[in-house]
Write a structure and sequence with these properties.
Blueprint (H helix, E strand, L loop, with lengths): L1 E12 L6 E12 L3 E5 L6 H8 L7 E6 L2 E2 L5 H11 E4 L11 H11 L4 H14 L15 H13 L5 E5 L7 H18 L2 E5 L3 H4 L4 E6 L2 E7 L6 E4 H4 L2
Parallel strand pairs: 3-8, 3-9, 6-7, 7-8
Antiparallel strand pairs: 1-2, 1-4, 4-5, 9-10, 10-11
Length: about 240
């Protein structure tokens, strides 16, 4: 099943001489239990693509479907509900709230969605335990190591049991060892818990953990690399659609 599907996705900012074509006719998919990385130089449209798929911005043209649901057909409230219930987000700087404990940070998406606090905290505690940071549940972010913060951020992204995790340059501010550990955790989310991940990254060491790597250039898909069993096979986009 396709968790994510985009068809001719286009995003244009500005107009006239100031017009910027951030995305142009991008068609891609992410299957159930698949880990896909998106790579490319700065300004190629990676983050714009993630924002479109996450329902954080509307496309100029084209379609985004999450589990078959066309996001264009949803009003803002319905889009917020879909985002909260079906998509987990991991941000570059994790965006943990400094005044909240690890447990409260993890439970927050459930609480915001109307879950009773005691039920939200119970579910959050389960994920902190699965990610081996339950002993730090009462600590605030400043009292956690970088690795512990990233585990809390992952727990928060999983607490609503989303089918899809979107990760925007989550290793951009980590050292090599921490980035490697983070990528290993993402791989585990796919292999152990069956989630789908779409990751934006500039780091080829991190993208090597993905099943497929999609390269963007000037807002378009330039190539895809199949990483199955680390036996990489490059397929030109033109050949794929021939």
């Amino acid at each position: 099943m396709k968790i994510v599907e985009t068809e001719n996705l286009t995003r244009i900012f500005g107009s006239g001489e100031a017009q910027v074509n951030a995305l142009q006719d991008v068609s891609l998919h992410v299957d159930t239990g698949e880990f896909v990385a998106v790579m490319g130089p700065s300004g190629c449209g990676k983050s714009t693509l993630l924002h479109m798929i996450g329902g954080l911005d509307r496309p100029t043209a084209g379609v985004v479907k999450i589990e078959g649901q066309d996001l264009n057909s949803l009003d803002d409230d319905s889009l917020s509900d879909l985002r909260r219930e079906h998509i987990g987000f991991i941000f570059q700087f994790f965006n943990l709230i400094p005044t909240l404990s690890a447990l409260d940070n993890t439970a927050l998406p459930l609480v915001l969605g109307g879950t009773k606090p005691e039920d939200a905290h119970a579910k959050a505690a389960e994920w902190l335990d699965k990610l081996e940071v339950s002993d730090r549940s009462t600590h605030r972010p400043e009292e956690l190591s970088g690795g512990q913060r990233q585990r809390v951020a992952i727990a928060r992204s999983l607490v609503t049991d989303p089918a899809l995790i979107l990760a925007d340059e989550p290793t951009g501010n980590l050292d090599s060892k921490s980035a490697q550990e983070f990528a290993t955790l993402l791989r585990e989310i796919v292999d152990r818990w069956g989630r789908s991940i779409l990751l934006v990254t500039h780091d080829p060491r991190i993208s090597s953990f993905a099943d497929r790597v999609i390269h963007l250039k000037d807002g378009r898909i330039s190539e895809q690399i199949d990483n199955h069993k680390h036996d990489q096979k490059t397929t030109a986009v033109e050949e794929q659609h021939a």
